[in-house]
Structure formats: C-alpha cells, structure tokens
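Narrative of activities, Objective 1.

The group set out to show that a structural description can be obtained from nothing but a protein's sequence at a throughput compatible with the screening campaign. Below is one input-output pair from the validation batch, recorded exactly as produced.
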Amino acid sequence: MQQGTVMRKVKSRSWKKQRYFKLQDDCMTIWYQSKRTGKTESAFSISDVETVREGHQSEVLQSLAEEFPPERCFTIVFYGRRGNLDLIAGSAEEAQCWVQGLRQLIEPRSLPLTSALVSLTWIRDWFQKADKNKDGRMNFKEVQCLLKMMNVDMNEDHALRLFQDADKSESGTLEGEEFVLFYKALTQREEVLSLFQDFSEDGKKLTLLELVDFLRQEQLEDEGTEELAMELIDKYEPSETARARHVLSADGFLMYLCSPEGSIFNPRHRALWQDMSQPLCHYFISSSHNTYLIEDQIRGQSSIEGYIRALKRGCRCLEVDCWDGPNGEPMVYHGHTFTSKIPFREVVSTLGKYAFKVGHPSSGTGCHGWPLVGGGDMAAIWAVMGLWRGSDRHPKMPTSLSPTPQELKQKILLKGKKIGRLEDTLDGPGDEAPNGSDDDNGAEAEEERRRVKVGGSQDGSALQKDKESLAQALSDCVVYCKSVSFRGFQEARSHSRPSEISSLSEAKARKLIRDMGNEFVRHNAWQLTRIYPSGMRTDSSNYSPQEMWNVGCQIVALNFQTAGMEMDLCDGLFSQNGRCGYVLKPPFMRDEETLFNPSDPGSWESPGPTTLTIQVISGQQLPKVANSKDGAVIDPLVRVEIHGVPADQARQETKYIENNGFNPRWDETLQFQLHVPELALVRFVVEDYDKTSRNDFVGQFTLAFANIKPGYRHIHLLSKDGTSIPPSSLFVHIRITE
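Output recorded for this entry:
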C-alpha cells in the first residue's frame, strides 16, 4: 500500500479512470492522483473510513460483474453522507492487499477509545501536519502555523515560552518527546485540575475515599460507589504504582471524565434497557421516508446505500416504491419523477443481508433481530426468499393490541392494503372488497394504486388479472399493519382494529394536534399512526418529528439523507435502548383513557416542573469550520435547545469566545423549566459566531432528557452528518431538581 498501486476508480458503467493510490508515511492518509496528469485528485483519512466491502457490493460494481470478477473489486465506505469509493484492482492479489491493509488500519477503532489513545493519535496527526519540511523536527515558525491550524490564536510571547520550556535539548526545534511536552502544556485542563484539587487533600492524588466522595457528592452515584471507584481506578489510572495503591492521579481523573462513564449520556441506557414486551403501538419506531433516495425527491439518485445507511442508524421502518421496468423486471424509484432506478431484486438482497445484522458502528449495538416494518410492494419476493414474517408461517390472530417487538423478533412486517379481513387470511379466503384510501385526501392512496402492479402486459384484461393476482398475494402478506383510511378518531374507535394503521401528511397531523390533541394521544395508545413529509418538500427537507412524538405518533418518517436539526432529534431519541430503533413511550401515552394533551400540560396530573441547570464550563479542540480561510480561528458559542411539548420549547446560549476553538472557557449557567421531561430532547450546539451573517455550524450532540447523567460530564460532539469528531468535546456540570 505504501509503495502505491494503480487501480480503476469507477463512478458509472462508462466512467472508469485509472488512478494511482498510495498510503502516506503517517499510515493515516491515503491520496490518489491521475495516472495521466500526475495531479493529486483527493485524499482521505483512515479515520473517515467506516468499512471495506469485497466484491460486487454496489450498484456500479454489480453493473460491471460480467467485465470484472468480484475478486478484483471492492468498495470503501465512509462515515456520514460522503459517497462511497468503488475500485477495481489490477489483480485479486492487489485487491486483497488493500482490503486487508485497510481493515487492519481501521480495526483498532473497534476498541474503546480511551483519552490516551485519542491524544496519541491526535498528537501524531498534528505533528505530521505541522512538520512542513518533513525533517522530523519543528521550529518555532512551524509551531506558530500549527497553533493556527489547531484553532488557537495565542500571544506570540506566551507561545515562545511554551516552546522554550519544551525544548529540553536547547536545539531551537522540537522533536519526539519534546513535542509531546509542548502539546501537554498546550492542553493543560485548568478547570479539571481545579476540580481535582477540591477533593484531593494533597493536590496530587485522589485516595479511594476521596474519589468515593466525589462520585457521591458531584456525580450523584448512590449505589455500589466504592466498587465503582475501584473499577475506575483500575480502568483509567495510567500509573501501575498508583493502581496498586488504589489512588487516582490527575491524569487518571481526566481520563475518567473523558470516558463513557464520564459522558453526559447514561451508559446504562446505551444498552437495551427498556421493556420490549409491550404492544408495537406503545413504541416510537425509527422510520424513514423514500428510503432508496440519497438526494432530492425529483432528480435524486436512488441507491441501495440509502437502505444500508438507514439500517445502520437503527431505522426499523423502510419504504420501497416498486414500478415496471425493462422486460417486466420491477424497479425501485420515485414514480413520475426523474430519479434514478435500482432493480427491486438488489433492494431485497440488500435487506436480506442487513435487516437484522447491522448495529451502530461506534457502539457495537443495533437492530439485531428487532422487527422491520416495510411499505411498498416487497411481499411477493420476500415471501419467496423466506424473509416475510421470518419462520412464522402461521401468525396468531391479535386478540387485543398489536403484538410486541419481542414476539416479532426476526420478522419483517408489511404495511399495505388488504383484501378481506385478517381472520380470512388466517382461516381461509375472504370475499370482502379491498379498502379504499388509507391516507388523508387520498394522496398516498393514489400513489399506492399506481404502485400495485409489478410486471405484466399492458393488455387491459391481462393487466386486471395481474393486478388481482398480485393484490391477493400482497394482501395475504399483510397481517399486523393493514392500511386503512383515517376518517376521524371516533370512526376509528368504532370500526378500526389494533392491527390497522393510518398514514397522515405532516399538515393533516398538525391540524389534528392543534384541534384534538388529547384524542390523538388516546388513538395512538392503541393503534399505529404513520406521518410522512409534505409533497412540497422536493429538496428532501424534513419537518420536526418532535411535534408528532408529542401526541404519540409511532412511525414518523423522515428523509434520512438530509442532515439538520430534525435528523439530530431522530438520532438523539433513538441513540438509547441499544439503538434497536424502538423507544418505549412514557406511561401516560400508553393509557387509552389518558387526559394528557401536549398543548396543555396542566390538563393531567403531572408531578410539577423539573429544573434542568447546565453550567457550560469549557470546550476542547473544536473543529474549524468547513471551507474556512487559512489561519482563520473560530469564535465559539454554545446554544442549548429544549425540544418537547410547546410549553417546554426553549433555547439559551452563552457568549462567544473570541479566537479560541482549542480550549475556550465560558463558565456560564443556563437554566430550563420542564413540564413534561419524559418527552424532552436536549440539543447542545456549538457555532462559530459571525456578526455580519449567520453563525456557522461547528458540532452538536442531542439526547433524550431521560438519558442525561447529572454531575461533571463531557459531551462528545458530532458532525452535521451525525458522526463523531474526536477529541472535540464540551465540559459541563448538570443538575436536575424536581
């Protein structure tokens, strides 16, 4: 890899260009250049790579299957929304060299990212960037350039003092351990050291009892505190001598605070912690809209990557729109638009591989086995593949509410219209006519009528026969998610069943929330409701899911390909419970006789407001704004947003810190009153202040209020795409009082 390899970079069946790929000496960067011109085209960091897939595992490589054998093909998959890189090596041996080499380079990131590991990687990266003449040393001029790159605008005299203190050899340059000393002086955490000394009698170490006091008084750990203190010392104290004496040094204390145990996110809630034996309608379910699209709704690209990415984010409700293709082969795309098309069989094959096997890349958790809900014409082929309803060929008739996620593990449920009653499907053929519209204003129902045929001739009688045949096959697959029209809550209560589902546009849902909030909550306590984006959102923008969750809507479909606050909320809600894609609704939203109305929190017996107090202390190594000018340094501020019922919606922000993205100090306290904390999401946003235009996004982190761990905590920031950007973080102090 470090000697370089000529491979074909492939973008389409007709676009295959030879490029020279080489792993840089730092073993962290790969660049490639045109073989013809010698001009460097692009470069990427190993840390940007999520995984490597061998063989024909992309639409482009599948289209070239007859021309190039799978042994020579592989795909580099990046985190976030960056496009994949499809490559064809000159030989199977070369392909394996790159595949195995890349996997070995990214493999260490599957281990827990300790503070020390992050720091070592960070130090090495910065040294490589700053050493302009590549002589393995850094003079003071290079150090000044480094500070600008690191988002630090430091006084020249102070920088020179740090440089001279670290230059133990008095050579006028820094190398090896000298640079590490300089880096440590630069990253000294005075606020953490001050906290450490508040609990340390000698200011040098925390004894076991002193650490227990800190955990109880500040971190509010009240169970097994001594055992926890011992675990933290064993896990995070870098000195063997200190570990043997059961004490924690300042370095170990910082490593603990930067660890998962020191995160604002309660580590117990990362794993599966909720009851999964409630009816489906008692859960919020992570749901996507037009899952196959990875761009806009009119001319955007359709790709199996849309399904893979959604499933990896914990999505459990997908859409497949199937239409006639060449030679009767069904194709998936957004009908009556100019979006590209993908074969239906590729979608089904992809879902067969990923539906129950993928977890979040950074957590080791995911949707292993939890039921998947699908909309569209998937049933016919899924039934043949054995995916439909898993191994259960004889589902039971629901007696009250819908079945539970636990009962439906390894099952795929089909949402669609149905001929006859569920009893007829389970007991024998029925003679009831198909239902009509299953959506408000008939909009989606009309779309579904357009989708109903897969293949077939254009002859009238043959077409009708094909439709009837397929409709029956499709109908027989619909068991627990029968699509029905929504004609009002009273009508639903009188004539609908728990195994049925209605779909509503965002506009229709908002009107019902405004006019009949309590009835909407009661309805969602016993039946599923799906919300989908307005047809006017041709740019694949999203509506806020929060207002839909406030009334208990379970399937709130979003455009997963579009980054922004709306997807941050979605990721924030579903980052808990093992990222399985199911989050249990609070008890008052599972009661069919509830008095709760999100527009009037006082309408039900709540325990009173909860006070959330957040002291924003500091930030660490914040990233520079994308496409910023050379030498530019950000002016960061922190905004805290509360998303919940209307009475709880709020936002407050700190002042901005001028010219310091490396270690800004705010020391500001923000306070919020929450009337329905069970539904609240808290979003931390860091922006680069700009007095003449909109602030630029720097990073964010969103989580449900229920998952907040009080005390002194680090918030590890995420990019706009929802991927981690280590070691960027905020340091805060959290207090919750009722």
